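FAQ: What does a ligand-bound record look like?

Like this one, built around NAP:
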Amino acid sequence: MASANQILIAVIGAGGVGKCFLSQLQALAARKPSPKLSLCYISTSRKALYNDDYSPINIDNALDALAASSKAPPSLTKVVEYLAAAPAKVVLVDNTSSQDVAELYPLALERGLSIVTPNKKAFSGSYQLWQDIFSAASTSGAKVYHESSVGAGLPVISTLKDLVDTGDSVTKIEGVFSGTMSFLFNSFAPTEGKGGQWSDEVKKAKTLGYTEPDPRDDLNGLDVARKLTILARLAGLPVESPTSFPVQSLIPKELESCTSGDDFLEKLPAFDQQMEDTKAEAEKAGKVVRFVGSIDVAANKVKVGLEMFDRAHPIAALKGSDNIISFYTKRYGNNPLIIQGAGAGGDVTAMGVTSDLIKVLSQIA
Ligand SMILES: NC(=O)c1ccc[n+]([C@@H]2O[C@H](COP(=O)([O-])OP(=O)(O)OC[C@H]3O[C@@H](n4cnc5c(N)ncnc54)[C@H](OP(=O)(O)O)[C@@H]3O)[C@@H](O)[C@H]2O)c1
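The answer part, i.e. the structure of the complex:
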């Protein structure tokens, strides 16, 4: 049974981020005598581990125990019922990219479960879901934090919230929001030297593990559009969905119907000239091309796609697969507040989740 001053942690998803989160949770629980953090539930899409009496799961070997578990996960509504009946406050950590789990948030919050997550789906889906989430949280008093849903562990969302909450006027947000796109353009159109062929760079990015298994899932721009949707809403724009504003896809029309990622990569070289022309046009103007997202708050305009930047511009000078996000505000004037660094990776993403958990603990414990 749970004891007084205990917080129960339920983790859904134990992949790249989930595993790193568990190791950070283990260290946090060891460091933090109060409130006592107990893992009461963990699942993947196929397996679950929990005890009917909420007795703690040993965090140190939770992954092995989960792998050995013969329990299938209960339905998501059953999971909420189980957690809502717990004898202590519960924080639900969603480390999946599941739309089904995201759609459960209003119910979970209504039932008093706080949520921390790097999952973009809930906050970049329909505007109705966004409203349902925050109204459920404000009614029940449960907390919801999602720092790692934009820029992984970089403090992008907390910074934007602080700017808005302290009364600054955010006029524009602009940046490179995808590690994959960052890597691709930093090597395809570097500020120094010639850069590679577009299709070679896409293949290289896939081999190095920077792309999704099918690179079209990065090149269609939707991942960036989802992040822009989240930031635009936080800046006060009621963006309906990530498809309700212009998003430039880098998938040639003819290759949209390729049967697999490999088929796509094989046919991509035939379309290299389009990207070469774009690069040459930028070079002629003394610039480089980058894949960026921008939100013009005053004009209520959000867009995602290719833009040209002077070689000395911070967006042009980005390295590796880093993200960069610039906040233009009334207080910061002509020199934006800039956040830059790794925008992907298990450990940094889990850091955003763990720091959200610490914020929740400070409010509910
Ligand atoms: N990796 C990064 O660098 C990064 C950066 C920023 C944000 N994120 C976000 O972090 C989240 C996790 O990313 P990841 O890289 O860890 O993904 P991942 O390696 O694919 O892991 C996803 C985990 O979620 C589980 N899962 C999926 N659907 C589920 C469901 N309906 N119920 C229970 N478990 C379910 C999967 O279980 P199975 O294996 O059984 O399917 C797996 O354990 C995503 O939302 C991602 O967008 C990741």
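Follow-up question: can I read anything off the structure? Yes, for example: The chain has a mean pLDDT of 96.
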